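Section 3.1: Structural characterization of target chains.
Under the original work plan, the team committed to producing a structural model for every single-chain target entering the pipeline before any wet-lab resources were allocated. The record below documents one such target. The sequence was received from the expression subgroup and is listed exactly as submitted; it comprises 90 residues.
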Amino acid sequence: MGEEEIRAYLLHRIEQKCSHETYRQVWAGLKFLYTVTLRRPIEVEQLPFRRKPPRLPQVISGTEVSALLESVTNMKYRAVLMTALVQKRR
């Protein structure tokens, strides 16, 4: 397999929607195989490394915040939770 076939295989893995960790392991395995075992580092010099997509934080709505605060009955824990929610807004 040459550089084009390796790229096609990595693209195939991406199209299969494999996880970032799986892709990273496949990429590292191919890099090791061609660099150390086969001693053909030129085949894998320009292999693209897929960056991990950024994960957006999950934001809850105002009604969900109200329901959360109302569900806490102990005043001590409610005060701590309210303080934490106020600190996050700033």
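The helical segments are 3-15, 20-37, 62-71, 75-89.
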